[in-house]
Amino acid sequence: MPLVEYGVAKSILPGQGESGDRHLVCCAGDGILIAAIDGIGHGEEAANAAEAAISILKASPDEPVISLLERCHEGLRSTRGVVLSLASIDPKHGMMTWVGVGNVQGVLMRAGAKKGRVEEVLLLRGGVVGSQLPALQAAVLPIAKGDTLVFVTDGIRSEFVEGLSTLESPQRAADKILKQHSRGNDDALVLVLRLTGVRA
Hints:
The protein is α+β, with helices and mostly antiparallel strands. It has three helices and eleven strands; from the N terminus they run βββααβββββββαβ. Helix content is about 20%, strand content about 35%. It has helices spanning about 45-60, 65-75, 170-180, and strands spanning about 5-10, 20-30, 30-40, 80-90, 95-100, 105-110, 120, 125, 140, 150, 190-195. The model has no long low-confidence stretch (mean pLDDT about 95). Strand 2 (about 20-30) and strand 3 (about 30-40) form a beta hairpin. The strands form two sheets. Strands 2, 3, 4, 5, 8 and 9 form a six-stranded mixed β-sheet that branches. A five-stranded antiparallel β-sheet has the order 1-11-10-6-7, covered by helices on one side. The N and C termini lie close together (about 10 Å). The chain has a single domain, classed as PPM-type phosphatase domain (Phosphatase 2c, domain 1), CATH 3.60.40.10.
């Protein structure tokens, strides 16, 4: 049985050939690593920086999130750099560890919460992975079946939380957020992930 279900919606800044926004959802030992990454700027160079971050994360997905961010910082020094938010889910113990550098917003909506009611918001620290890494501190939260995690890059307005519902499928929720809250002047990415099972 899959432990998560997720949906992704994204758009490219008009006039650019590719997006600098990328996402990752991958199995990491007994857990799941989730990332939303925004390469600095636009176009090919931003996309290259974001892809480099994805490669580093995929290489060691079961490492702690702080170590992964530090690895990305070292590996991206020759690029424009990225801002990113990371979450590591441990389904066996019902815990999630998350951390963010820059402005990729993250929220957690509890199962059965009223529409638009977000219980947890990721604390973001200013900086750029690859050039200016701030002091890092990850937060650890209990999670349960039915909880929904949402990451959005800065091409999405922060009011996106108002219409969030735990009753919608993750893909439908992601598409709706992109349609209703895209700024239209930047690449945009929405990642919506729901915990559908917990390992016994």
